[in-house]
Amino acid sequence: MNRQGFLKGSMILLVTVAVTKALGLVYRIPLTRLLGGSGMGYLSSAFSVFTPVMSVAAAGIPSTMARLAAENYAFERCANLRRTKKTAMRLFTGIGLVLTAAVILLAMPAARLFTGQQSAGYAVISLAPALLFCTAMSVERGYYEGLHNMYPTAVSEMLETVFRLVLGLGAAYAAEHHALAEFAAKGTCFGTLCTDLAQARQQALPFIAAAAALGTSLSSGIACIYLILRSKIKGDGITPQMLAKDRAVDRTGDIVRRLLAYSTPVALTALIMTLAGMIDMLTVNPCAAAAIRKSPQTFSHLLGGGLTEQMLPNFIYGSYEALAAATAGLVPTLTAMLGKSALAAVTESFAKGDNKAVEQHINRMLTLCAMIAFPSGLGISLLSEDILALLFSGRTAEIAAAAPSLRILGAAVVFMSLSLPCFTLLQALGKARKATAIMLVGGVVKLIGNLLLIRLPKFTLTGAAISTVVSEAVICIAVMAVIFRAAHAKIRLGSVIIKPCYVAVMSVGAAFAGRQMIINQHLFTESRTIITISTVVFSVIMYLIVIILLCETPKNVLNPCFCKKNRKKDLQFSGK
């Protein structure tokens, strides 16, 4: 059986996420340039409506399957493991099918009710098939993650990202071409009469956003087909002899009850986690409109290019979500993979009552998360405008709207990067229900902050960012407290907090020293892009130097992953 230890599994998932996020930027940057702030507002609104339904349908499946797979395998119940997978596939794909049909039927009224823009419903309809595909994918991914095999998850995510890039962008540009050709020939855009080209482009935006969303659904379908075919052809490594040892299997009804009992709290937590997006969707537009009415001159620099004052709230929301929030979310999605990798090892050790191994797993996971989170968060805060200019060049107005909020969201990056993998481990420790209460408290903090701050002209989007930072800080502290209390473990402050902070200060300090040297020597002063890239390179070099001096890597991390003489030690650490 192809099983990896915690470190090697983490490396596989981290590399996968790094590649998929890079490809995701390749996808998002031209899409943002094509749609602009207003078009991304339609797409962001559609995802804000769609994401809660996806949370209910699929969020709890991977961790539930990973936990049950790890438990069954640890106690050599391989026949029961197979039955659990079969039952889960039937149960969750049935739920996915019902929800897909419901989303298609209710898309237009839901978009009008929650976003005030019925046009966002086209994108919601295009996203609906992804519900069915993602439920099936989640069963397969969680099953193999529980068996310490991260390759199916890694390859399927790669495929999904590549095809979203090709099909999503292709469909979006095809929709734009069709709209402009129709306007040139008939003076209409998707059947609506338009007076000029600027109006035609605005009219086309909801349909272009829907075309991009359709690419997302198709890419999920392709990745789902790959996972199912891979399972049929390569199998899971369980032999007939292993199956023969397990003579008693649970009843289907009992398995269904366990699946629902484990997945429901996680799904509820994920649903509440989407409240951050839902809260922004419901509060940013009306509160920004109130701020604009109070002080229109504060926002006058954003007008132009066919953008009117009435369109400004949606433009501000789209810029915040597509530029600031999306950029800040890159790092937490990376560290979340460490939680997925640690889940199986923590589950096995916790099931066997090995508290010392559980403490080791948790602290090592948090150390790796912190080594990524602290430098990234500080760098994003200090280089916010440069990063947005590098990623979204040409979108001057959107960058002007989003850069101040991204500067503040750098702090939220740290808290989110530490809390997301911890939420995954709550499942392994039998404390999944705690996550619901934690996220409810965080959602209330976020809502109050938005309502108080966004309507003030001097804050507006920075108000949304401030409330996010405070909310994520509360969530992070609470979930880490629950984790360590449940595991009867102690946090290693030196490796989790002190060393990562030192790495962050040194790497970002070196970046700014290098940046200042380039400016003082008048090197590349005509190219902001080259200066930004050079600054990042300086930061990475110093980062590698410092973590080597601190003996965090490659000696302690890379060697166990790739050197045969150290692999035995890593397997022992992983509870095998």
Q: Mind sketching the topology for me?
A:
Layout: H1 6-59, H2 61-74, H3 78-115, H4 121-127, H5 129-146, H6 151-186, E1 188-189, E2 192-193, H7 197-234, H8 240-245, H9 252-273, H10 275-294, H11 312-328, H12 330-351, H13 355-382, H14 384-391, H15 396-428, H16 432-453, H17 461-486, H18 493-520, H19 528-549, H20 558-562, H21 564-573
Antiparallel strand pairs: 1-2
Helix pairs in contact: 1-3, 1-4, 1-5, 1-6, 1-7, 1-9, 1-10, 1-11, 1-12, 2-3, 2-5, 2-9, 2-12, 3-4, 3-5, 3-9, 4-7, 5-7, 6-7, 9-16, 10-11, 10-16, 11-15, 12-13, 12-15, 13-15, 13-18, 14-15, 14-19, 15-16, 15-17, 16-17, 18-19
Keywords:
576 residues, 2 domains, two-stranded antiparallel ribbon, 21 helices, 1% strand, disordered C terminus
In words, what does this structure look like?
- The chain has 576 residues and is mostly helical.
- It has 2 domains: 1-237 and 250-271, no CATH class; 274-576, no CATH class.
- It contains 21 helices and 2 strands.
- The chain has helices spanning 6-59, 61-74, 78-115, 121-127, 129-146, 151-186, 197-234, 240-245, 252-273, 275-294, 312-328, 330-351, 355-382, 384-391, 396-428, 432-453, 461-486, 493-520, 528-549, 558-562, 564-573; strands at residues 188-189, 192-193.
- It has a two-stranded antiparallel ribbon with strand order 1-2.
- A hairpin with a 2-residue loop joins strand 1 and strand 2 (192-193).
- Helix 10 (275-294) packs across helix 11 (312-328), helix 15 runs parallel beside helix 17 and helix 18 packs antiparallel against helix 19.
- The radius of gyration is 24 Å and the shape is globular.
